[in-house]
Each structure stands twice: as C-alpha cells, then as structure tokens.
Design goal:
Helix content is 45%, strand content 16%. The chain has 119 residues and is of the alpha+beta class.
Length: 119
C-alpha cells in the first residue's frame, strides 16, 4: 500500500487489537475515516490505527500525514475486517481513533514505542 509508511509485526498487530478492545470497553473510540479525521483535526485522538487493505487507497492516504502534522501516534492493521472485529463490529472498519485510552493506556504506550522506536 502506498500510504503504509512502515511494516508492523504480527506481535504488534495482536497487541493493537487487544488495546483497541480495552479502549472500546473502558475509554472511547471513533471509527471510520470521517470520524477519525475529525478526531485528529480537533485534537481529540490519542492513537490511530489504519487498515492496510483499503481500496481505493485515496480514502485513507491523508491519515498518516494528518497524524504526523498533529503529532498523533498511529499504526497499521493488515485487514479492515479484523480491525472492525477488534472493537466489536461485524463489518469492516478502515480506521479507528482512540480518544480516551481507559485501561488500554499502557498497551498503547508499548505499541507506540515499538512502532516509532522511541520510549
């Protein structure tokens, strides 16, 4: 995918799904490209996950750039169907923004440090 700026290991992907489940239960998440874009622009997003199999790519191409501009950490998930399932949806989901991390705070910190290489 042209918009995917880095590879994410299977281990990090699994941890990401767990963190999203926790954030959905104990915090708050936004789903879908439009909601995620608004969340980032308004400064509410604390972590963003983008699906890697979105077609056409143009739908989500702006998200990594927007995240970098607003200094919001982000990661990728390989399949949008699995991304949707991670927050209890029975339909595919192209992107998710975590607004309130809740019980997922520590897991998200670990994911961000692995993805960015920074502590």
């Amino acid at each position: 995918m042209a918009y995917q700026k880095f590879e994410v290991s299977d281990e990090v992907v699994a941890k990401t799904y767990e963190a999203l489940q926790q954030a959905k239960r104990s915090g708050s998440v936004r789903k879908g490209v439009n909601e995620v874009t608004k969340s980032i622009e308004r400064g509410l997003a604390t972590f963003v996950v983008i699906a890697g199999d979105v077609a056409p790519e143009e739908v989500v191409m702006h998200l990594p750039i927007l995240c970098e501009q607003k200094k919001v950490p982000y990661s990728y998930a390989p399949k949008k169907i699995d991304l949707g399932k991670s927050i209890g949806l029975n339909v595919p989901c192209t992107a998710i923004a975590v607004e309130k991390q809740g019980g997922a705070e520590q897991a998200i910190k670990e994911i961000v440090s692995r993805v960015t290489g920074k502590k």
